[in-house]
Amino acid sequence: MANDPLSLTFAALADPTRREILARLAEGEATVNALAEPFDMSLQAISKHLKVLERAGLITRGRDAQWRPCRLEAAPLEEVDQWVDRYRDRWEERFGRLDRELHRIQNSTEGEKNHE
Amino acid sequence: MANDPLSLTFAALADPTRREILARLAEGEATVNALAEPFDMSLQAISKHLKVLERAGLITRGRDAQWRPCRLEAAPLEEVDQWVDRYRDRWEERFGRLDRELHRIQNSTEGEKNHE
DNA sequence: CGCATAATCAACCTAACGGTTGATCAACTG
DNA sequence: CAGTTGATCAACCGTTAGGTTGATTATGCG
Protein backbone atom coordinates (compact mmCIF):
# COMPACT_ATOMS: atom_id res chain seq x y z
CA MET A 1 0.00 0.00 0.00
CA ALA A 2 1.09 3.56 -0.65
CA ASN A 3 2.34 5.38 2.42
CA ASP A 4 1.43 8.97 1.68
CA PRO A 5 -0.84 10.53 4.32
CA LEU A 6 -4.03 10.55 2.28
CA SER A 7 -3.60 6.93 1.19
CA LEU A 8 -2.92 5.88 4.78
CA THR A 9 -6.08 7.64 5.89
CA PHE A 10 -8.32 6.24 3.17
CA ALA A 11 -6.92 2.75 3.73
CA ALA A 12 -7.55 3.04 7.46
CA LEU A 13 -11.14 4.06 6.78
CA ALA A 14 -11.72 1.20 4.33
CA ASP A 15 -12.68 -1.18 7.12
CA PRO A 16 -16.03 -1.26 8.95
CA THR A 17 -14.43 -2.35 12.23
CA ARG A 18 -12.11 0.63 12.21
CA ARG A 19 -14.92 3.01 11.32
CA GLU A 20 -16.97 1.64 14.21
CA ILE A 21 -14.01 2.20 16.49
CA LEU A 22 -13.81 5.81 15.37
CA ALA A 23 -17.55 6.23 15.95
CA ARG A 24 -17.09 4.90 19.45
CA LEU A 25 -14.17 7.26 20.07
CA ALA A 26 -16.27 10.20 18.93
CA GLU A 27 -18.13 9.77 22.21
CA GLY A 28 -14.93 10.02 24.21
CA GLU A 29 -11.69 8.28 25.07
CA ALA A 30 -11.69 4.53 25.54
CA THR A 31 -9.30 1.73 26.43
CA VAL A 32 -8.41 -1.10 24.09
CA ASN A 33 -10.56 -3.57 25.99
CA ALA A 34 -13.53 -1.21 25.96
CA LEU A 35 -13.13 -0.74 22.22
CA ALA A 36 -12.79 -4.47 21.62
CA GLU A 37 -15.85 -5.40 23.64
CA PRO A 38 -18.51 -5.03 20.89
CA PHE A 39 -16.56 -7.15 18.41
CA ASP A 40 -16.42 -10.90 17.99
CA MET A 41 -12.70 -10.72 17.51
CA SER A 42 -9.55 -11.20 19.53
CA LEU A 43 -8.02 -8.35 21.48
CA GLN A 44 -4.90 -8.68 19.37
CA ALA A 45 -6.87 -8.07 16.20
CA ILE A 46 -8.30 -4.88 17.68
CA SER A 47 -4.80 -3.89 18.74
CA LYS A 48 -3.72 -4.20 15.12
CA HIS A 49 -6.65 -2.11 13.94
CA LEU A 50 -5.68 0.55 16.43
CA LYS A 51 -2.14 0.53 15.12
CA VAL A 52 -3.47 1.15 11.61
CA LEU A 53 -5.58 4.04 12.87
CA GLU A 54 -2.62 5.43 14.78
CA ARG A 55 -0.33 5.25 11.75
CA ALA A 56 -2.92 7.24 9.81
CA GLY A 57 -2.98 9.82 12.61
CA LEU A 58 -6.67 9.16 13.26
CA ILE A 59 -6.06 8.32 16.91
CA THR A 60 -3.45 9.00 19.56
CA ARG A 61 -2.78 6.92 22.65
CA GLY A 62 -2.09 8.05 26.16
CA ARG A 63 -0.84 6.11 29.13
CA ASP A 64 -2.73 5.58 32.36
CA ALA A 65 -1.13 2.82 34.42
CA GLN A 66 -1.71 -0.39 32.45
CA TRP A 67 -4.37 1.21 30.32
CA ARG A 68 -3.67 2.86 27.01
CA PRO A 69 -6.60 5.20 26.39
CA CYS A 70 -7.28 6.05 22.75
CA ARG A 71 -8.40 9.45 21.59
CA LEU A 72 -9.87 10.45 18.25
CA GLU A 73 -7.80 12.84 16.15
CA ALA A 74 -9.79 14.47 13.38
CA ALA A 75 -7.03 16.20 11.43
CA PRO A 76 -6.77 13.46 8.77
CA LEU A 77 -10.54 13.59 8.35
CA GLU A 78 -10.22 17.24 7.55
CA GLU A 79 -7.72 16.31 4.85
CA VAL A 80 -10.24 13.85 3.46
CA ASP A 81 -12.90 16.51 3.55
CA GLN A 82 -10.71 18.93 1.65
CA TRP A 83 -9.84 16.32 -0.93
CA VAL A 84 -13.43 15.28 -1.55
CA ASP A 85 -14.52 18.90 -1.59
CA ARG A 86 -12.89 19.36 -4.98
CA TYR A 87 -15.56 17.06 -6.42
CA ARG A 88 -18.50 18.55 -4.57
CA ASP A 89 -19.91 20.30 -7.65
CA ARG A 90 -20.05 16.90 -9.39
CA TRP A 91 -22.83 15.65 -7.17
CA GLU A 92 -24.54 19.00 -6.95
CA GLU A 93 -25.13 18.95 -10.71
CA ARG A 94 -28.68 17.86 -10.09
CA PHE A 95 -29.47 21.21 -8.53
CA GLY A 96 -28.90 22.79 -11.90
CA ARG A 97 -26.81 25.79 -12.77
CA LEU A 98 -28.72 28.42 -10.84
CA ASP A 99 -28.83 26.48 -7.63
CA ARG A 100 -25.15 25.58 -7.99
CA GLU A 101 -24.36 29.24 -8.34
CA LEU A 102 -26.34 29.93 -5.18
CA HIS A 103 -24.29 27.31 -3.38
CA ARG A 104 -21.08 28.87 -4.64
CA ILE A 105 -22.07 32.32 -3.44
CA GLN A 106 -23.22 30.93 -0.12
CA ASN A 107 -19.89 29.16 0.33
CA SER A 108 -17.89 32.26 -0.52
CA THR A 109 -19.78 34.37 2.02
CA GLU A 110 -19.22 31.63 4.58
CA GLY A 111 -15.54 31.86 3.72
CA GLU A 112 -15.50 35.59 4.42
CA LYS A 113 -17.19 35.06 7.73
CA ASN A 114 -14.92 32.29 8.95
CA HIS A 115 -11.58 33.42 7.68
CA GLU A 116 -11.66 37.05 8.79
CA MET B 1 -11.39 -6.52 2.14
CA ALA B 2 -14.93 -5.70 3.23
CA ASN B 3 -17.39 -5.28 0.37
CA ASP B 4 -19.85 -2.77 1.77
CA PRO B 5 -20.16 0.35 -0.40
CA LEU B 6 -18.29 2.70 1.90
CA SER B 7 -15.39 0.29 2.36
CA LEU B 8 -15.18 -0.25 -1.39
CA THR B 9 -15.06 3.49 -1.94
CA PHE B 10 -12.45 4.21 0.73
CA ALA B 11 -10.32 1.32 -0.51
CA ALA B 12 -10.55 2.59 -4.07
CA LEU B 13 -9.42 6.04 -2.93
CA ALA B 14 -6.51 4.64 -0.93
CA ASP B 15 -4.23 4.66 -3.95
CA PRO B 16 -2.53 7.72 -5.47
CA THR B 17 -2.75 6.33 -9.00
CA ARG B 18 -6.50 5.92 -8.72
CA ARG B 19 -6.91 9.39 -7.22
CA GLU B 20 -4.92 10.84 -10.13
CA ILE B 21 -7.17 8.98 -12.54
CA LEU B 22 -10.22 10.52 -10.89
CA ALA B 23 -8.63 13.96 -11.07
CA ARG B 24 -8.07 13.43 -14.78
CA LEU B 25 -11.65 12.30 -15.27
CA ALA B 26 -12.91 15.40 -13.51
CA GLU B 27 -11.84 17.24 -16.66
CA GLY B 28 -13.93 14.99 -18.85
CA GLU B 29 -14.27 11.49 -20.24
CA ALA B 30 -11.15 9.64 -21.29
CA THR B 31 -10.15 6.32 -22.82
CA VAL B 32 -8.05 3.73 -21.00
CA ASN B 33 -5.00 4.54 -23.08
CA ALA B 34 -5.38 8.26 -22.42
CA LEU B 35 -5.69 7.60 -18.69
CA ALA B 36 -2.67 5.29 -18.71
CA GLU B 37 -0.42 7.68 -20.59
CA PRO B 38 0.95 9.67 -17.59
CA PHE B 39 1.89 6.57 -15.63
CA ASP B 40 5.00 4.43 -15.78
CA MET B 41 2.90 1.32 -15.60
CA SER B 42 1.47 -1.27 -17.95
CA LEU B 43 -1.93 -0.76 -19.57
CA GLN B 44 -3.17 -3.89 -17.81
CA ALA B 45 -2.34 -2.39 -14.44
CA ILE B 46 -4.38 0.69 -15.28
CA SER B 47 -7.18 -1.56 -16.47
CA LYS B 48 -7.19 -3.20 -13.05
CA HIS B 49 -7.25 0.17 -11.32
CA LEU B 50 -10.24 1.12 -13.44
CA LYS B 51 -11.99 -2.06 -12.45
CA VAL B 52 -11.50 -1.17 -8.79
CA LEU B 53 -12.91 2.30 -9.40
CA GLU B 54 -15.81 0.82 -11.32
CA ARG B 55 -16.61 -1.67 -8.55
CA ALA B 56 -16.75 1.23 -6.12
CA GLY B 57 -19.11 3.05 -8.47
CA LEU B 58 -16.66 5.90 -8.91
CA ILE B 59 -16.59 5.53 -12.69
CA THR B 60 -18.78 4.09 -15.41
CA ARG B 61 -17.64 2.99 -18.84
CA GLY B 62 -19.29 3.50 -22.16
CA ARG B 63 -18.58 1.91 -25.50
CA ASP B 64 -17.41 3.72 -28.61
CA ALA B 65 -16.11 1.23 -31.18
CA GLN B 66 -12.98 -0.29 -29.66
CA TRP B 67 -12.71 2.49 -27.11
CA ARG B 68 -14.21 2.28 -23.66
CA PRO B 69 -14.52 5.86 -22.45
CA CYS B 70 -14.55 6.28 -18.67
CA ARG B 71 -16.72 8.81 -16.91
CA LEU B 72 -16.47 10.06 -13.34
CA GLU B 73 -19.41 9.21 -11.08
CA ALA B 74 -19.47 11.30 -7.93
CA ALA B 75 -22.24 9.58 -5.98
CA PRO B 76 -19.84 7.52 -3.81
CA LEU B 77 -17.90 10.69 -3.05
CA GLU B 78 -21.08 12.20 -1.71
CA GLU B 79 -21.39 9.17 0.58
CA VAL B 80 -17.85 9.80 1.77
CA ASP B 81 -18.68 13.44 2.33
CA GLN B 82 -21.72 12.55 4.40
CA TRP B 83 -19.76 10.05 6.44
CA VAL B 84 -16.94 12.45 7.21
CA ASP B 85 -19.38 15.22 7.90
CA ARG B 86 -20.34 13.57 11.17
CA TYR B 87 -16.85 14.38 12.43
CA ARG B 88 -16.70 17.93 11.12
CA ASP B 89 -17.17 19.53 14.53
CA ARG B 90 -14.09 17.63 15.75
CA TRP B 91 -11.75 19.70 13.62
CA GLU B 92 -13.74 22.86 14.01
CA GLU B 93 -13.11 22.80 17.77
CA ARG B 94 -10.63 25.60 17.27
CA PHE B 95 -13.46 27.96 16.40
CA GLY B 96 -14.74 27.63 19.94
CA ARG B 97 -18.16 26.85 21.29
CA LEU B 98 -19.97 29.91 20.05
CA ASP B 99 -18.78 29.58 16.50
CA ARG B 100 -19.55 25.87 16.55
CA GLU B 101 -23.07 26.65 17.63
CA LEU B 102 -23.34 29.09 14.73
CA HIS B 103 -22.27 26.34 12.40
CA ARG B 104 -24.88 24.01 13.83
CA ILE B 105 -27.64 26.54 13.38
CA GLN B 106 -26.46 27.37 9.91
CA ASN B 107 -26.47 23.69 8.95
CA SER B 108 -29.95 23.14 10.28
CA THR B 109 -31.33 26.08 8.31
CA GLU B 110 -29.55 24.76 5.21
CA GLY B 111 -31.27 21.48 5.84
CA GLU B 112 -34.65 23.16 5.90
CA LYS B 113 -33.90 24.94 2.67
CA ASN B 114 -32.63 21.91 0.77
CA HIS B 115 -35.05 19.30 1.96
CA GLU B 116 -38.27 21.19 1.42
C1' DC C 1 -9.11 -11.15 -45.61
C1' DG C 2 -5.05 -9.42 -43.07
C1' DC C 3 -3.42 -6.27 -39.91
C1' DA C 4 -3.14 -2.57 -36.52
C1' DT C 5 -5.25 -0.65 -32.37
C1' DA C 6 -7.92 -0.65 -27.84
C1' DA C 7 -8.71 -3.13 -24.13
C1' DT C 8 -9.40 -7.24 -21.38
C1' DC C 9 -8.42 -11.98 -19.73
C1' DA C 10 -5.38 -15.28 -17.53
C1' DA C 11 -1.61 -16.88 -15.00
C1' DC C 12 1.84 -15.74 -12.05
C1' DC C 13 4.60 -13.36 -8.31
C1' DT C 14 5.58 -10.70 -4.11
C1' DA C 15 4.05 -8.15 -0.40
C1' DA C 16 0.57 -6.75 2.64
C1' DC C 17 -4.02 -7.41 5.14
C1' DG C 18 -6.76 -9.30 8.60
C1' DG C 19 -7.25 -12.72 11.46
C1' DT C 20 -5.53 -16.53 14.77
C1' DT C 21 -2.81 -18.49 18.99
C1' DG C 22 0.86 -18.36 22.36
C1' DA C 23 4.29 -15.78 24.78
C1' DT C 24 5.69 -11.59 26.83
C1' DC C 25 5.81 -7.05 29.09
C1' DA C 26 4.04 -3.61 32.37
C1' DA C 27 1.43 -2.09 36.13
C1' DC C 28 -1.60 -2.69 39.94
C1' DT C 29 -3.09 -5.75 44.07
C1' DG C 30 -3.17 -9.03 47.81
C1' DC D 1 6.73 -11.84 46.10
C1' DA D 2 2.94 -14.07 43.46
C1' DG D 3 -0.98 -13.34 40.79
C1' DT D 4 -4.14 -10.77 37.85
C1' DT D 5 -5.24 -7.54 34.38
C1' DG D 6 -4.31 -4.61 30.14
C1' DA D 7 -2.08 -4.63 26.12
C1' DT D 8 1.50 -5.73 22.83
C1' DC D 9 4.82 -8.74 20.39
C1' DA D 10 5.83 -12.63 17.42
C1' DA D 11 4.96 -16.23 14.41
C1' DC D 12 1.90 -18.19 11.45
C1' DC D 13 -1.91 -18.69 7.88
C1' DG D 14 -5.21 -17.86 4.00
C1' DT D 15 -6.66 -14.23 0.98
C1' DT D 16 -6.23 -10.19 -1.57
C1' DA D 17 -3.76 -6.08 -3.81
C1' DG D 18 -0.98 -4.48 -7.15
C1' DG D 19 2.11 -5.32 -10.41
C1' DT D 20 4.19 -8.16 -14.38
C1' DT D 21 4.05 -10.79 -19.08
C1' DG D 22 1.66 -13.30 -22.68
C1' DA D 23 -2.55 -14.54 -25.03
C1' DT D 24 -7.12 -13.19 -26.49
C1' DT D 25 -11.18 -10.50 -28.00
C1' DA D 26 -13.31 -6.77 -30.59
C1' DT D 27 -13.37 -3.07 -33.71
C1' DG D 28 -11.78 -0.24 -37.69
C1' DC D 29 -9.13 0.04 -41.98
C1' DG D 30 -6.48 -1.05 -46.35
UniProtKB/TrEMBL annotation, chains A, B:
Q: Which domain of life is it from?
A: Bacteria
UniProt xrefs under Gene3D superfamilies: Winged helix-like DNA-binding domain superfamily/Winged helix DNA-binding domain
Annotated keywords: DNA-binding
Q: Which GO terms describe its molecular function?
A: DNA binding
- Please verify whether the record's keywords include Signal: no
Q: Which InterPro entries match?
A: ArsR-like_HTH, HTH_ArsR_DNA-bd_dom, WH-like_DNA-bd_sf, WH_DNA-bd_sf
- Which SMART domains does this UniProt record tie to the protein? HTH_ARSR
Query: Is the keyword DNA-binding in the record?
Result: yes
Could you tell me which SUPFAM superfamilies the record lists for this protein?
Answer: Winged helix' DNA-binding domain (SSF46785)
- The UniProt record lists the HTH arsR-type domain at 1-92
Name of the protein described by the UniProt record: DNA-binding transcriptional ArsR family regulator
